[in-house]
């Protein structure tokens, strides 16, 4: 309750309008004024009850109340729309007929008059009546809004004023707004001011600074009080919103953030999340994050989510590259207040690196004679991972003659475990495998190519134990005889084979004049033509040598066999081929059919078939008288000789060998059918008509002397033979050359061993005139002796010599023939 003193004439109680006290009330308050507008003036409070008496007009005018009705007294409205009051004609009292609301009629005007006129007739009389309506405090102060909204920046200074809405009170005067009151609070006080027109208003004064972060809103009750009695009041709520100022920097929740990240984490993985808070509002409290100090390497790997503060992976995280990262993060609010924190990200190793095998050194190639245990290489194995992930085991595949020996740290030696042989395995692919102990383990392998270098440890080896070559005589010089091959498995020059002939002599002549060898191909060539009749075989040592240092060699025997060719015509030993000689056989007149008369002796220097001779009579004086043994060469009578037969018989005999093609020789045999040598002179007439008599007589002399000599010779032979059976050869050393005159000079046999056999045996048949005079010579000639003989000049094996020999010999043979005949 407001204990406000009011003016004494308007002092109204709360029950002032109660009907029971109506009269008392009127007596107190209705005041009659005289003068002014009218005759009568009353002052009445508003809101009087109906029927309430304002005043007694009759009495106040001094009129008789009874006379009023006679005079038709009435109240004229005089412009008022509404009547509000009525005249009681019986009593002359003016009574309220309608509620009077001053505020409705007069608003804020301070005076509110109602004017009437009292009209009386008989006589007409007018009296002005003025009703002055007095205000009563029937309206409370009223704020236009129940809530007054204020926004005050938190940085507002002490003493700042904020005007507030004014309250209204329809009542006027003292009943209007008298004061404003503010609910007690710690920040604000209130001052009440008056406008120039006296209207009161209030202002909020900041007594204590605001802090939005402490208290964001305040509600204060503002009350307006009027001056009525009792006073009335009205209130409104002041709603103060504290406006934020950027007075706080963002604060990180921790000074250091630690995060772990497995390497190779996927892009987008959150490594760590930082949070900073800023109690400010709006942009002032809007925190964004950024890296403030970051290495360029880390910058490639991480980003920070501006809003969420998540540090995310953007690149490949490699433990082997960096094991931890330190980054400074800054948090900033909308107006740039910032603070920072440290972020440490530890990277966790995963086994993502296979071991790497490095060959630090390699002795390549390895000589094949390297001792067992020789170190051929040094291997280093590296694994970039850490701890168990980098523990490495190293192995090598089986079945190579190498092994790995752990050495210092992660070094291994590759050593040989057995001897190497380039000729068996020339190179190795050694596969090294390294496995780490990670989970799952990673491994890698590397292949080392190791080759074995050659050492000259193999001599050339001939493909065959021995070689045989067959060459036919009269070969072309330079023709190839045979070819030898030796193999050497060594490499290049160590395996390059050169062939040569081991110097030796054949028949006293250096081998080189017979054979040569192609050093590269091993083809053996004849240097000259061979003569089977000279020697039949010989042996040669061929050496195969490699080109190593020192060289290795081996040798092989090549046996050269010369094969015969039919290159010698049969040679008639008897009778001599010479057409001019006296080769006349005496045939006894009494010779019977089948008796042996003569014999053709021929030899052939060739051998085998080539020396197999056959005889044939080609021409004869009396065909049918003589026949010749095809193989024996014996001339026999085919029938008994008769007297009628011509004394002189000529035969032409052909001797042919069996070679291909066959060679033949012919000779003439002169037969004289006679028992008496005295008939001989006819001989020359018979065959050699042209021979002069001088020659005949010389011949006879010669024959006599030679036959004497010959007889002595025969006796001597027989004697020596008896005495020296054991050394017949010696006997013939230096012996007479005559028989040999019938032999071909180079008639030699080469035996299998290659040594020239110095003896030559043949059976010769010498036929005398008698059937029984056949005797056999067994002759053994020493070739050398023969050569040494004075009779012949023979130095070499030249065919020309042979020819010489025949020429010389022919003369002697003539003599011999003559001798035999004698
Ligand atoms: C080693 O490997 C190479 C190339 O892969 C191959 O040509 C060669 O024949 C191999 N050698 C051996 C002995 O396996
Ligand atoms: C041949 O062998 C020798 C050792 O005997 C060696 O030094 C040389 O290198 C080898 N030559 C080749 C071509 O392999
Ligand atoms: C030929 O070889 C044999 C063994 O194969 C050897 O004893 C001999 O000395 C060699 N001869 C030469 C001249 O090398």
Automatic annotation (TrEMBL):
Annotated InterPro entries: Cadherin-like_dom, Cadherin-like_sf, Cadherin_C, Cadherin_CS, Cadherin_N, Protocadherin/Cadherin-CA
Keywords carried by this UniProt record: Calcium, Cell adhesion, Cell membrane, Glycoprotein, Membrane, Repeat, Signal, Transmembrane, Transmembrane helix
Pfam families per record: Cadherin, Cadherin_2, Cadherin_C_2
Topology of this chain in the membrane: Single-pass type I membrane protein
Compartmental location: Cell membrane
Residue ranges occupied by any Cadherin domain in the UniProt entry: 144-252, 253-357, 366-462, 463-572, 587-683
GO molecular function: calcium ion binding
Gene Ontology terms: biological process: anatomical structure morphogenesis; cell adhesion
GO cellular component terms, semicolon-separated: plasma membrane
Transmembrane region(s): 698-720
Role according to the record: Potential calcium-dependent cell-adhesion protein. May be involved in the establishment and maintenance of specific neuronal connections in the brain.
Protein name: Cadherin domain-containing protein
Origin species: Coilia grayii (Gray's grenadier anchovy)
Phylogenetic lineage: Eukaryota, Metazoa, Chordata, Craniata, Vertebrata
